[in-house]
Write a structure and sequence with these properties.
This protein has 164 residues and is mostly helical. Helix content is 38%, strand content 6%. It has helices at residues 2-30, 39-43, 50-61, 68-74, 80-88, and strands spanning 32-33, 91-92, 112-114, 124-126.
Length: 164
């Protein structure tokens, strides 16, 4: 009885290992590399039609994509959302699947704006926050004791100009 249980365990392990190997082979066989794919292979990815495939191939002519960020920046119509979908359906860049960029901490939200007028281009620029206003001096000191920057010029009567 013990030998039969051991044989059953080994059989289950072999079946599981074989299934895992087949699944791995199927996943790698289904992957499509953006830097070497043909139009037909690109169109085989769900969501990539003739126009998107042409955009990818046109941008690839100017040089291979370094990574997913490069692909998203260069190919019009591909943003982080569609890059994630294409990757889930088997598209890779230099053999790597898409991984989302790190999220912005909640304290920094609202400081980034897209520099492109078309949504989803992945171009982000930081908008600087306005500097704090310098403290206002209190006019408690007499006008003669104030610094020249604190003194206000006397109003000029109309028609009189300042000599240069």
């Amino acid at each position: 009885m013990i030998a039969f249980d051991r044989l059953a365990q080994v059989s289950r392990w072999c079946i599981a290992a074989t299934a895992g190997t087949l699944l791995t082979l199927c996943v790698h066989a289904a992957s499509v590399e953006a830097n070497s794919a043909t139009t037909a292979e690109l169109e085989g990815i769900k969501g990539i039609g003739p126009r998107m495939a042409a955009n990818i191939l046109n941008e690839r002519r100017s040089g291979n994509f370094r990574d997913w960020v490069d692909l998203v920046e260069r190919v019009q119509g591909i943003g982080p959302g569609s890059a994630s979908k294409f990757s889930n359906d088997g598209l890779t860049v230099n053999g790597a699947p898409y991984s989302a960029p790190p999220t912005t901490p909640s304290s920094a939200r609202g400081q980034h704006r897209s520099a492109s007028s078309s949504p989803g281009r992945g171009v982000i620029m930081t908008i600087p926050q306005p500097a704090a206003a310098p403290p206002q001096s209190t006019p408690s000191a007499p006008p003669s004791a104030r610094t020249p920057a604190e003194r206000k010029p006397a109003p000029r009567p109309p028609g009189i100009t300042q000599a240069h």
